[in-house]
Here is the input.
Amino acid sequence: MKRIIIYTGLLCFMVLGLSSCYKDVILPTISASKPPQFVSFSNDLQPIFTTDCALAGCHVSGSEHPYLTPDVSYNQLIGGYVNTVVPTSSTLYIMINGDMEVHIPSATDRQKIYDWIRNGAPNN
Here is the structure.
């Protein structure tokens, strides 16, 4: 009987000890406090979209909107995904810092996208 009580106590202690362990993942954030840097859509952003987003089954023509292939990406983004007046309310900004952050984990790349929106989202 003592053995059952001891084993039960050890089991409860182990379950309690293991259930209290967790790992916080803190990803680098983007900065709105510094002035936006110059960002070229075709030279800086399109390579990010091509390698991280425009993959089979993701943001290619005929799949998920917006299509981010080089031939249509700019028009797709300007067509409702970018808000240059309030950049933080842009759908693109919200997605790259939310659900899609795992696909663009680099804070530098996310900062480039944010700076491009803050600069007025030029087609350069």
